Amino acid sequence: MNDAATPDRPVSPPMQRPLRWLWLTLLVIVLDLGSKWFASTYLIYAQPVELLPVFNFTLLHNTGAAFSFLADHAGWQRWLFAAIALGVSIGLTIWLTRLKADERLSAAAIALVIGGALGNLYDRLVHGYVVDFLSFHWQGNYFPAFNLADTAITLGAIGLILASLRDGRRHTATSDKRDAP
């Protein structure tokens, strides 16, 4: 991102109190863990409860990562994924503290990813698996089950991509204006 001031876009100051966005992280964690508790308490393992013709609640335990990646291994992956979640959360928190005042989309996106990572980290450390229960299907084809933490991570990643694209367009537009005769 270009930090140089232009007549159209002055340099924005660092974000005041950037860690205030961690309220969103806390909200994601509370909603995620609450929904996982509800699913674990009221659903029977691997027995779908149809809510819509294409959507079920189905309690599943995932010892791997996305799409059950490495789920069939002996258990070492639990600690690998826990370390990754912790490292990503620390790195993203540092990034959050360095954002500028006008980077609200990036701040919200980072907070969502941190919340999702910590929600799934809790499951890995306490249970040894991640609780999944949201299950979409179409004509007998089932997509991998997921949870609210996974949803927050996905929405956060989309937000970071959109912020990056927007900032890239701003940079290009600013460069074009400077280069114009």
TrEMBL record:
Keyword Metal-binding: no
Gene Ontology molecular function, alphabetical: aspartic-type endopeptidase activity
Alphabetical list of Pfam families matching this protein: Peptidase_A8 (PF01252)
Locations listed in the record: Cell membrane
Active site (catalytic residues): 132, 150
Keyword list, A-Z: Aspartyl protease, Cell membrane, Hydrolase, Membrane, Protease, Transmembrane, Transmembrane helix
UniProt KW Membrane keyword: yes
Catalytic activity reported: Release of signal peptides from bacterial membrane prolipoproteins. Hydrolyzes -Xaa-Yaa-Zaa-|-(S,diacylglyceryl)Cys-, in which Xaa is hydrophobic (preferably Leu), and Yaa (Ala or Ser) and Zaa (Gly or Ala) have small, neutral side chains
Membrane association type: Multi-pass membrane protein
EC number: 3.4.23.36
Biological or metabolic pathway of the protein: Protein modification; lipoprotein biosynthesis (signal peptide cleavage)
Primary subcellular site in the record, as a coarse category: membrane
The protein's role, per its UniProt record: This protein specifically catalyzes the removal of signal peptides from prolipoproteins.
Protein name: Lipoprotein signal peptidase
Organism: Chromohalobacter sarecensis
